[in-house]
Design brief:
Blueprint (H helix, E strand, L loop, with lengths): L6 H12 L4 H16 L5 E4 L2 E4 L4 H14 L9 H13 L4
Antiparallel strand pairs: 1-2
Helix pairs in contact: 1-2, 2-3, 3-4
């Protein structure tokens, strides 16, 4: 079973992926590159005790990470950070059996 990513670690990962980026396009590319390098898709998980392969698209993950990043900036916030973090966790938990 994959380990749970803490809020602090997720924030650190987003910062590492976007620190040298200029503008949203480069930030999205940075997030996409980080995911492509470190996330093996599809991955296996257990849902209600049944082994399943997760069906997650990198584009969807990048979008959710950008929304989460924006939620940390009061000037860009649309939804609370916790809501966006939960959305991101939900995408990572999603799987198909």
């Amino acid at each position: 079973m994959p380990r749970k990513i803490s809020k602090a670690r997720l924030e650190q990962m987003v910062e590492e992926a976007t620190v040298d980026a200029y503008g949203e396009s480069e930030q999205t590319t940075g997030l996409y590159t980080m995911l492509e390098e470190h996330l093996e898709l599809p991955f296996n998980t257990k849902v209600l005790g049944v082994e399943a392969a997760a069906q997650v698209h990198l584009y969807e993950l990048c979008l959710a990470m950008c929304w989460y990043r924006d939620s940390l900036d009061p000037a860009r916030r649309v939804h609370p950070a916790e809501q966006e973090l939960n959305r991101l966790r939900g995408i990572l938990r999603r799987s198909a059996g």
